[in-house]
UniProtKB/TrEMBL annotation, chains A, B:
SUPFAM superfamilies documented for this protein: FAD-binding/transporter-associated domain-like, FAD-linked oxidases, C-terminal domain
UniProt keyword annotations, A-Z: FAD, Flavoprotein, Oxidoreductase
Taxonomic lineage: Bacteria, Bacillati, Actinomycetota, Actinomycetes, Pseudonocardiales
Pfam families recorded: FAD-oxidase_C, FAD_binding_4
Gene Ontology terms for molecular function: FAD binding; oxidoreductase activity
Family recorded in the similarity comment: Belongs to the FAD-binding oxidoreductase/transferase type 4 family.
Span of domain FAD-binding PCMH-type: 34-213
Cofactor: FAD
Protein name according to UniProt: Glycolate oxidase
InterPro entries per UniProt: FAD-bd_oxidored_4_C, FAD-bd_PCMH, FAD-bd_PCMH-like_sf, FAD-bd_PCMH_sub2, FAD-linked_Oxase-like_C, FAD-linked_OxidoTrans_Type4, Oxid_FAD_bind_N, Vanillyl_alc_oxidase_C-sub2
Length: 460, 460
């Protein structure tokens, strides 16, 4: 039996069978995605223990669902019937931070903010900063290719992953990628693993590229009467050739929810708040802040100013980070993650408003608007089944609109379970076939997070 | 017969059978790598014609070797016996340059410098700048994940590829990747294609990310008595936390060869010239130039100065670009492309000197030294077979040294044929198995540039 065999190869405290604990590891933050009860939870401390677990899953033809902190928003970490849930939250060593080579080597369970703090202590910066950074792990960030606030200027997790240690679908422990600045020795399998949501391998160590810490940022804030007006400001900033270090949208619903929870004394005088930042040094930063301010005003901001109060600016960014958990307190939230070309952001925001009205669904908006990545959050009263059906219809319309505008169904959260239908629409049959071929090549036993990202293949 | 069937599906002028022309398309610039005579050359004008050609190769179980300008240095484009050579040099349309979304869409035969010039006309910049940029094509750059001078600060081709149109190994024409700033819908198959040297698909269109044009650069030049001293200057710059926009090494042999060819009046007073650049604006740029100068001097530069003469600085960079073809005029050149961690650059340069002495082989050095990517060029007199054997032994020692120092056998040129042995040493059996699995999944008929990057699989 699987559990007996796991007990034979792992220290006893790695294996969890208590049903209450199993339940707590059965799903991530995607409340709408289905999940089952795992057969067992394994919390390994070493790569060898991960490898031993993978080998047992192969031996027993048992699905393996790997997860970190479980902050995912697409159901990618949800348990499937009878699976092993492999929780990497005890592999938290920061093995190395090298200021000369500008890289860090960490175990997958290191929390994003912990890595960032350790780097900062050496004058270094690990840019990817998902809103979940106080809780989410580097392993999870790698699995979903997490983005965040800084992406508009500094790119996503994949841009910072140099190398990985991985347990493969055949149970081998291997190193992919490199430690050098450049390298083209063979296929970019490390890059292929990033964003593959645990379906192609289990990451047991991550080598990330670092940057030097930045100069303090300037913040420009603006109030708008509508998301569309704020979207026009964002499109104007892109058209003006400015690449801000952050450009975030938060609407009144989000600010109110955060304020109700955290009592931060946030102003909610406006329908929509836009927050821009520049980290360009000296005069270049002044110029960027001025351009952003002009774009805000031309797009019809009811109020706009360069913030002289760093605390106030930080509070607004903190509120943006807390928007999702704050809204979750009000009822089940269905999270979109569409991303469209910058100049189509106003059009997309208008279509989101229309979808909300068409399906009588309450939508709150947060957005990494500078790179066209929009997160309309569809909120339903707890237990209202009809509202859920309407929200699902609005969700589907928004996905269809994003694809019609040349966008993608997921900018940074991943496909998981919630976006599988959208993925099929986005990729088309030829590209889906390539995905299935790669999946089968790297997971020949079909044990790695089965059913996530890709549904069953047509020949199964 | 294959050629009859190609003639049935392609316009007549796309098919080349003249033996002299076939010979001219039989190999790239890797003089030491083996090649055969192709059966036929196809020069398509559209993606549909590429697709028709791939389908005929599948039908007739005929190898397909795709190439652009043939400036590769590893034999990746060398013809194999009886193959079709697919030359994409007639697919030269720049379809789109979008200054707001900051992207360009081009056919694979567009020459790198032509794209850069078209972008510059709109105030935009396509950074990847291999030394071959006046001749090499974007398609070839994508196939090898080409680097260049700017990589030390701005990354390589892969960092700029957003999307690809590809003919797959099963003859489907598909789009991979995206046009949006972010996107995680499915596996990163566009990234997987980059650097795969025509072994996983044929690229028929490329969507690249662009940047805004930069401020003019400052140049700092220094003369050194040895490559090791220059390497110490480079390591000191990295340790000081400065990321130059270029940091290039050129030795006396290269300068002399360029001067003999182009009569540029280059000074060759020093054993080694180091060229650093900063494109940081304003005071930050002054500071970077000062730090570089100090690092040059501390490392024992016999002369160093910030260049006040832009023409002279440009001439030195031009000479660096011409070093390879200039040396080729003197005899067969065997090109290394090792890349090591920055702090080990002096050690690696010392080992290169030792390998040259040990095997009585003349070595000229150019290097993207700022990112640890070294190009010792092993030169042999034409027709001297013993010198060739000695050079090959030196080549192998240098590869072994790079791997011993935690480096890679190829930083930017690709594996092709010349670095296959090194690849096996670098990756090890577990990772090689993954490569073969991916290759088989995406090229099930085994027609795409067979034998390149990976040798035959052990079960073949």
């Amino acid at each position: 039996m699987l559990i007996d065999d796991l007990q034979a190869v792992l220290p006893g405290d790695r294996i969890v069978r208590d049903p209450d604990v199993l339940r707590s590891f059965a799903h991530d933050e995607a409340e709408w995605a289905p999940y089952a009860q795992p057969a067992v939870v394994v919390r390994p401390r070493t790569a060898d223990e991960v490898q031993a677990t993978v080998r047992q899953c192969i031996e027993h033809a048992t699905p393996l669902v790997t997860r970190g902190a479980g902050t995912g928003l697409s159901g990618g970490a949800n348990a499937v019937e009878g699976c092993v849930v492999l929780v990497l939250d005890r592999m938290t060593a920061i093995r190395e931070i090298d200021p000369v080579e500008r890289l860090a080597v960490v175990e997958p369970g290191v929390v994003n903010d912990d890595l960032r703090a350790a780097c900062a202590a050496q004058g270094l910066w690990y840019p990817p900063d998902p809103a979940s950074s106080p809780w989410s792990t580097i392993g999870g960030n790698v699995a979903t290719n997490a983005g965040g606030v800084c992406c508009v200027k500094y790119g996503v997790t994949r841009d910072y992953v140099l190398g990985l240690q991985v347990v493969t679908g055949t149970g081998e422990l291997v190193r992919l990628g490199r430690r050098t600045a450049k390298g083209v020795a063979g296929y970019d399998l490390a890059g292929l693993m990033v964003g593959s949501e645990g379906t192609l391998g289990v990451v047991t160590e991550v080598t990330v590229r670092l940057r030097a810490q930045r100069a303090p940022e300037r913040t420009v804030a603006g109030y708008f009467d509508s998301t569309v007006a704020a979207g026009e400001a964002a499109a104007a900033i892109a058209a003006a050739g400015v690449v801000p270090s952050a450009l975030e949208l938060v609407d009144r619903h989000c600010l109110a929810a955060v304020d109700a929870w955290k009592n931060m004394g946030l102003s909610a005088d406006a329908e929509v708040v836009l927050l821009g930042r520049s980290d360009a040094p000296g005069e270049a930063g002044d110029r960027e802040a001025t351009v952003m301010l002009e774009c805000f005003e031309k797009a019809g901001a009811t109020w706009a100013a360069q913030s002289s109060d760093q605390e106030e600016a930080d509070a607004l960014f903190a509120a943006r980070r807390l928007a999702y958990p704050a809204l979750e307190r009000l009822g089940p939230v269905l999270t979109e993650d569409v991303c469209v070309p910058t100049h189509l952001v106003p059009e997309m925001l208008a279509r989101i408003d229309l979808a909300a009205k068409r399906h009588d669904t309450q939508v709150a908006n947060i957005a990494h608007i500078g790179d066209g990545n929009l997160h309309p959050l569809l909120i339903t009263p707890t237990g209202d089944e009809d509202a859920r059906r309407r929200a699902q219809a609005a969700f589907d319309d928004i996905v269809a609109d994003a694809l019609a505008l040349g966008g993608t169904v997921t900018g940074e959260h991943g496909v998981g379970l919630l976006k599988r239908t959208g993925l099929v629409q986005e990729l088309g049959p030829g590209v889906l076939e390539l995905h299935h071929a790669v999946k089968k090549a790297l997971d020949p036993h079909g044990i790695l997070n089965p059913g996530k990202v890709l549904g069953p293949h047509s020949d199964e």
